[in-house]
Structure formats: C-alpha cells, structure tokens
Design a protein that fits this description.
Helices cover 41% and strands 21% of the residues. Helix 6 (160-170) packs antiparallel against helix 7. The chain has 2 domains: 2-84 and 151-201, Gyrase A, domain 2 (2-Layer Sandwich); 97-145, no CATH class. The longest helix is centred in the C-terminal third of the chain and has 17 residues, at 177-193. The protein contains 8 helices and 6 strands. The strands form 2 sheets. A 4-stranded antiparallel beta sheet has the order 1-2-6-3. By secondary structure, it is of the alpha+beta class.
Length: 203
C-alpha cells in the first residue's frame, strides 16, 4: 500500500493566524506561546482554525480498504480511478496468512493466524476479466467479476482537522489492520508537516 503526499497548504503558523484573525492580528513567526494556543484550540474543540491547513494524497490500497476510508467525508474530497474507463491489468493485495475471527467481537479479527492460499482464485478472476474484455464486453460491466482485494488508487484532499478525525478513528487497535497501514502513513506525514497541531489533534 502506498501513500504519497502530492501537495499541502499551510503550517502550524497558518492555524495560529486563522485563530488570531478574530482579534485582527497576524504573525510571521511561530513562537512558544503559539503552541499553547494550538493546545487550547484542540482541547476545547475549536476546530475551524485547523481547517485552514490542508493536504493532498495519492493513495494505492485494496478496494475493501478504500470502501472503509471513503466513509470519512466531512472536510475531505475523494476522486478514484474508475474501471469504467480503465481496463489495464488489475493488481491485487494477496495475504498468505489470514487472521482468525475474534471471539469477543461482532466484527474484527484476532491475532491468531491461519495460512490460506487464494492465488488460484485470483488467477481465475483475472482470466475471466480478460476474457470478457476480449469479447468486447464493456469494462464497466466486466469489472463486476473482480474481487475486493483488487488494488485501486485515489486522490484524497482535505483539511488537517478532517485527517486527524480519520486517523484518530482508524488508528485505534480495533480498526482493521490493512486500513491502519494507510492511516499510519497519513499520520506520519501530518506529524512531519504540522508537528505542533498534530501533537494535540492526534489521540
């Protein structure tokens, strides 16, 4: 799975200036007292100043991971590759060790693993898909036979605050491991570019 930062806007100072505009003030240098302001904003859920900093990612992950993450929509914009128009060879996420179902949860998995090989199934799916395309079946219909572990990619843009809410939820221990593989990378990127704000926004 890949998470690539392709653009960003703002800094920790942007958050400070967005908050201080209420008093018609602007700063050109971040100071120690500004960290206290950011801490106060985050702790008291004053989210709007964090909405003036933003990031844009290009992400590659399996369809089942994308479907979990696309549920987060407030403050975020999503554009994904479409197999209505793209018929290039699909790629797949193929684990060889599979987590067992957790006994004490209605959903989720345990740390116990079992080996299981799905390579033959993936080969058959790809062959079926390619056969359909060769028969001139429209890609928008042929894509129906491709499984959820097919890789997809999307551009994901949004505010710092929106990505913090997403990471705080999806980085929890009970979140799906494969989804955490994406949100942990987003977390590291936000931490690098907005170190002070992210310290107080992230749980």
């Amino acid at each position: 799975m890949k998470v690539q930062l392709i653009d960003k806007m703002g800094s920790d100072l942007s958050v400070v200036n967005a908050a201080r505009v209420s008093f018609s003030k602007v700063k050109d240098k971040f100071e120690e007292k500004d960290e206290k302001l950011i801490k106060y904003l985050a702790e008291h859920n004053h989210w709007s100043p964090f909405g003036h900093a933003s990031l844009q990612f290009r992400i590659e992950a399996p369809v089942f991971v994308a479907r979990q993450l696309v549920k987060h929509q407030v403050g975020l914009v999503w554009n994904e590759v479409s197999r209505r128009y793209v018929d290039e060879e699909p790629k797949f996420y193929i684990p060889f060790m599979w987590r067992k179902k957790a006994e004490n949860k209605k959903q989720g998995s345990s740390n116990e693993e079992v080996p299981y090989d799905i390579v033959d199934y993936i080969k058959k799916s790809k062959k079926l898909y390619n056969d359909m395309l060769e028969k001139d079946i429209a890609p928008e219909m042929a894509r129906m036979v491709l499984p959820q572990n097919m890789m997809t990619e999307w551009i994901w843009s949004g505010t710092l605050y929106a990505f913090a809410r997403t990471c705080n939820l999806r980085n929890k221990p009970d979140a799906q491991v494969e989804t955490q593989m994406v949100t942990h990378q987003i977390h590291k990127c936000c931490q690098e570019h907005f170190p002070i704000s992210w310290r107080y926004l992230s749980e």
